[in-house]
Amino acid sequence: xxxxxxxxxxxxxxxxxxxxxxxxxxxxxxxxxxxxxxxxxxxxxxxxxxxxxxxxxxxxxxxxxxxxxxx
Length: 71
Known about the structure:
Helices cover 79% and strands 0% of the residues. By secondary structure, the protein is an all-alpha fold. The chain is globular, with a radius of gyration of 11 Å. It starts with a helix and ends in a 7-residue tail after the last helix.
């Protein structure tokens, strides 16, 4: 069930950054230690021009998973 929800969120993120931001904000609130959620949220916010939020979330992702070049 979780995989299905993540697949839907990923699909939404690829098609509509603005609509995808809220589900990822909720996901980060539920799992603040998830580098993948933070990384995707940072990328979405970059696309939306929310630079301060994008930088904060991207840095948090990098701190959590410094060896992951995708974050």
